[in-house]
Write a structure and sequence with these properties.
single chain, about 180 residues, alpha+beta, Immunoglobulin-like, 2 domains, four-stranded mixed β-sheet, four-stranded antiparallel β-sheet, 8 strands, elongated
C-alpha cells in the first residue's frame, strides 16, 4: 500500500506543480479582458484626480472669495537711517506674518522693490492692523518701531502698503501705512 501511495503521490505532486506553473503563466500574461480592465481602472483614477482638483478649487473659491482678500506690501525708500531686519504683522491682535529679511532682500527693497508680505482674507467691517519693524537705526542702535492702522474692510480686495522712508528733518526713519484704493 505504501508503494502504491508513493507511486501515485509523486506524479500527482508533479501534475499539481505543472498546473500551478501554467496558472501563474496565464495570470502573468495579459489577456484582452484584463487589459481592458486595467485601462478602465486607469481612466477612473484620472477622473478621480481631476474631480479632486476641481473640488479643491471650488472649495478655495467658496471659502476665500476675492471680495474678502487683503494684501500687505512692504517697500523702502533710501534707507539711510534704518537697516531693516524683520517685519511682524498682526491683525486684530493675531499674528499673521513675521518675516526676517536677508541682505539681498534688503538691497532689492532699497532699489525700489516691493514685497508682498501677507495675503489673507478678512470679513467686512472694522479691523486693526499693527506692524512692527525691527532693525538698526542710526549709530548702529537696535530699533523697533510699531505703527497701527484702522482698516474699514468693505466688499472688494484691499491693498495696504507699509513704507519705510527717511525723514531728513529729524534724521530718523519714518514708517507710513497707506491703503490703496
Amino acid at each position: 500500500m505504501r508503494a502504491w501511495i508513493k507511486a501515485t503521490a509523486v506524479p500527482a505532486i508533479m501534475l499539481l506543480a505543472l498546473a500551478t506553473s501554467r496558472a501563474e503563466e496565464q495570470a502573468e500574461q495579459p489577456t484582452p479582458e484584463r487589459s481592458a480592465l486595467d485601462a478602465e481602472v486607469q481612466g477612473l483614477r484620472r477622473e478621480v484626480v481631476d474631480l479632486n482638483r476641481d473640488l479643491f478649487m471650488l472649495e478655495e473659491d467658496l471659502l476665500f472669495p476675492a471680495s474678502t482678500q487683503i494684501a500687505v506690501f512692504v517697500s523702502m525708500d533710501v534707507g539711510t537711517f534704518f537697516d531693516l531686519d524683520s517685519v511682524q504683522i498682526r491683525i486684530d491682535g493675531k499674528e499673521v506674518s513675521n518675516y526676517l529679511y536677508t541682505a539681498r532682500e534688503r538691497e532689492a527693497l532699497l532699489r525700489g522693490g516691493v514685497q508682498r508680505i501677507w495675503l489673507g482674507n478678512m470679513k467686512a467691517g472694522e479691523h486693526e492692523l499693527v506692524a512692527f519693524f525691527t532693525g538698526q537705526g542710526t549709530h548702529e542702535r537696535d530699533y523697533k518701531r510699531g505703527t497701527t492702522l484702522a482698516i474699514d474692510k468693505g466688499v472688494g480686495a484691499k491693498y495696504v502698503e507699509l513704507r519705510i522712508s527717511d525723514r531728513l528733518r529729524k534724521l530718523q526713519p519714518e514708517f507710513v501705512v497707506k491703503v490703496w484704493e
